[in-house]
Amino acid sequence: MKILIAEDDKNISNIISESIKKFEKDIDIVVFEEAQKALEHATSNAIDIFILDIQLKDYKGTHLAKQLREIDRYKYSPIVFVTALASEELLAYRELKCYSFLIKPFTKSEINVVLDDVIGYKKQLKSVSKTIRIEQKSFVFEYNLENIIYIESFGKKLELNLCNDNKDTKEMISGYSLKKLLEMINDSKFIQCHKSYILNTNYIEKIDKANNLIYLRNNMGTIPIGKKFLDGVY
């Protein structure tokens, strides 16, 4: 799980970061003081939870939240606001689908209550697995969508690249086009990034815009981005 903190007060960001590390050791934390840098990082890297100060150095955290909500993968991602401005709360709840608040000044116990709630919520979402059923001759195979890293087209056959119990496997299927499979998957986390590739965006580590490449998490390799699909990726 990866948490992005946008906070221009280093004391506060340190307190939140330390609380997260004590609460859950296996969480990656990135911290930014400026909204624009936070947005750039979130665009090129998959983030699970956002903790945003409403007052940032360059522009407001509420505006940053609006920009994040315009990115498909973050349409429903949990956002926690850090604020001392009660007037901003109603706007955030109504328009930005805010998950929770930390009202300044706050205590470490209040941070832990929010973390327990939002991290637990995110874990529960990940545990509910969607599946896809694929017919091959007289057999029907069922795959968890969360286990599909990407799908590559080889003419009349498709190769499913899977991650099961931290082991990468590959399976060939026939009788389906990439377009048909994308329709069957029907999940916004999956995008076609190239004429030969469908990608699960949860496995994106970073995006190299200069070379039109997607780097996958845990050194799983790279996926090319086709010119026709640039808008859908960026």
UniProtKB/TrEMBL annotation:
The keyword Cytoplasm is assigned to this record: no
GO molecular function: DNA binding
Domain HTH LytTR-type: 132-234
Modified residues (4-aspartylphosphate): D53
Database matches in Pfam families: LytTR (PF04397), Response_reg (PF00072)
SMART domains tied to this protein: LytTR (SM00850), REC (SM00448)
Ranges where the Response regulatory domain occurs: 2-119
InterPro entries per UniProt: LytR-like, LytTR_DNA-bd_dom, Sig_transdc_resp-reg_receiver
Name the record gives this protein: LytTR family DNA-binding domain-containing protein
Organism: Intestinibacter bartlettii
